[in-house]
Design brief:
With about 210 residues, the protein is an all-alpha fold. The protein is built from nine helices and no strands.
């Protein structure tokens, strides 16, 4: 087992390192194969230090899933924040970010699928999933609202929500395709497919005017 060298850092840094160690072990062994002792060894800390941040394995797993959900949304948001241009450009970059690494990655799919198995049997995991989903959908709703405002198109909240749900479904489907079989597609092929599908849903081109 690879042991991380663990330097003294802030509480947030220590907590993050423990979550990353948990994710590494889940990716390698699955949920049932990990223990608090193994997480401590992977992170290079004592069991006692883990107990300072997490009550046990269950809370570690919950924090790890929350980290996965938030990480994917934050990566896509960062791509939009780094984009100079109009609302069409920001939405295109949001789609692309979700269909390329590091968001679209076989390890990310493996972790997500592992955690998903718990959401119908564990209320805490279900709550984390719901919060992550709604956060992602709100990002889409904001992008759609900005786009409509830019082109002078009116849309009620219910319509923006419906479009966000539909676009999320497109992104989810293509994300799974990319993660499962990246070698079957040409570079940016799935990004182009995603943009084309979203354009059809919106009834407008996302190309720069």
């Amino acid at each position: 087992m690879t042991r991380r060298s663990f330097r003294r850092g802030t509480q947030d840094e220590r907590r993050h390192a423990l979550i990353q160690a948990t994710l590494d072990l889940i990716a390698e062994k699955g949920l049932k194969g990990i223990t608090v002792r193994e997480v401590a060894a992977r992170a290079g800390v004592t069991n006692g230090l883990i107990r300072h941040y997490f009550s046990g394995k269950t809370q570690l797993i919950e924090a790890a899933y929350q980290s996965v959900m938030e990480g994917m949304t934050e990566a896509a948001k960062a791509a939009v924040a780094d984009t100079e241009g109009d609302a069409k450009s920001r939405l295109r970059h949001f789609i692309a970010a979700n269909l390329t690494p590091p968001v679209a990655d076989p390890r990310a799919l493996s972790l997500w699928a592992t955690f998903i198995s718990l959401i119908h049997v564990d209320p805490a995991m279900a709550a984390i999933h719901r919060a992550g989903y709604l956060q992602f959908r709100r990002e889409l709703e904001d992008l759609i609202a900005s786009l409509f405002a830019e082109i002078g198109r009116e849309a009620e909240t219910a319509q923006r929500v419906r479009l966000a749900i539909q676009i999320n479904a497109v992104i989810d489907g293509l994300w799974v395709e990319r993660c499962l079989a990246e070698d079957m597609f040409a570079e940016d092929e799935l990004v182009a497919a995603g943009v084309e599908a979203v354009e059809a849903l919106l009834g407008l081109s996302l190309s720069q005017s």
